[in-house]
Specification:
By secondary structure, this protein is α/β, with parallel strands linked by helices. It has a single domain, classed as TIM Barrel. It starts with a strand and ends with a helix. The model has no long low-confidence stretch (mean pLDDT about 95).
Length: about 375
């Protein structure tokens, strides 16, 4: 896997690059739609490709391991073939999902024992078998197994969690390097920086992570409830330490404003369920602000959903009709909103890329942050 930085912004740490994988090139900065259980909720693969223009999507190891199961995916020829997606793909390690199962999991040095949220059955994740699972799933980029700390958490807890994440990383790398890809193409392993919101821990973790010659690096354990300014502080600190010539992935982020501010700090890759989850609850993001389609103000608004939008749904449907769909509980409302939001997020990072190349990113970003945080 190759990463080439093509342009750098003169006023911020933003950069525009190209990440080359076995399933194609990715222009950065990039947003990755989240496909939790082998699909991006309410969106056809064709629409992800042709309408949203997604360049890479994300799958969740925890969910895929439980259902449909690794054997089913491996027999299909990997997740790409299973879902009919021939572009790049990334899988997380399951660390975040296991973290969210606080009441039904037990963490030890060996790994994590947890109960399935589906049927209560017991399972075990270790650094080694998580590498094996992700080999079988077959994503182009796979993540190291880590422990994601909650917010807030005590310093000692964050320190212990960071240290076990580092020890697990060594085991992940050893397993990864001692195994071969199952589906005939190269996979890349990204380590994850942890350390909660403690600057000294984040600095230490970034230095340890950087000592591994990885294809790229991720920042985890943020966007878990901490103030946005604290997230930016930790992200900026880590970006100053991580290798300058490798892609940086801020996991689970975020709002349009979060993404823009983090691009300015030097982040290249993002994922978040927000555009689709919020879409299913009637929230529409646009370049001029956000709308709650359940509000009465849209009841007889016959203007198109978003005259500046890039998806076909933006000019095919009116605000009044989409509000009706949500009020009536029709599934189409969530489908339309999901398509729109994903297309907007991909437009946003694509436009950020163009502004970086043009040397106008900083002023554009500052103006855009004010717009996207406006309630319409």
């Amino acid at each position: 896997m190759k990463f080439i930085i093509q342009d750098k912004d003169k006023d911020t740490n933003a950069r525009a690059g190209v990440l080359e994988t076995a399933h194609g090139k990715i222009k950065t900065p990039i947003f990755m739609p989240v496909g939790t259980a082998a699909n991006v909720k309410a969106v056809h693969t064709r629409d992800l490709n042709e309408d949203v223009k997604a360049q890479i999507i994300l799958g969740n190891t925890y969910h895929l391991y439980l259902r449909p199961g690794v054997d089913i995916i491996q027999k299909a020829g990997g997740l790409h073939k299973f879902i009919g997606w021939d572009k790049p793909m990334l899988t997380d390690s399951g660390g975040y999902q296991v973290y969210s199962l606080t009441d039904i999991r037990k963490l030890k040095e060996e790994g994590v024992t947890f109960q399935s949220h589906i049927d209560g059955s017991k399972h075990n994740f270790t650094p080694e078998n998580v590498m094996d699972i992700q080999r079988a799933i077959g994503a182009d980029i796979i993540m190291a197994f880590d422990e994601c700390t909650p917010y807030p958490c005590e310093y000692d807890y964050a320190k212990n969690s960071m240290e076990i994440t580092h020890r697990w990383l060594k085991r992940c790398v050893d397993r990864f390097e001692s195994t071969e890809p199952i589906h005939g193409y190269e996979q890349a392993l990204f380590p994850i920086v942890q350390g909660s919101v403690y600057p000294d821990l984040r600095r230490q973790s970034a230095e340890v992570i950087s000592s591994f010659d990885a294809a790229g690096y991720a920042i985890g354990g943020l966007s878990v409830g901490e103030p946005h300014e604290m997230m930016y502080e930790m992200t900026g600190l880590v970006c100053e330490i991580l290798p300058k010539d490798k892609p940086r992935y801020l996991m689970g982020v975020g709002t349009p404003a979060n993404i823009l501010e983090s691009i300015a700090l030097g982040i290249d890759m993002f994922d978040c369920v927000m555009p689709t989850r919020n879409a299913r609850n009637g929230m529409i993001f646009t370049r001029n602000g956000f709308m709650n389609m359940l509000n009465n103000k849209w009841k007889d608004d016959y203007s198109v959903l978003d005259e500046e939008g890039t998806s076909f749904v933006d000019t095919q449907y009116t605000k009044a009709y989409i509000r009706h769909l949500f009020i009536a509980g029709e599934l189409l409302g969530g489908m339309i909103a999901s398509l729109h939001n994903l297309a907007f997020y991909l437009w946003l990072v694509g436009e950020a890329r163009e502004q970086i190349k043009a040397g106008t990113f900083r002023s554009w970003k500052e103006s855009m942050v004010k717009k996207v945080t406006t309630r319409l």
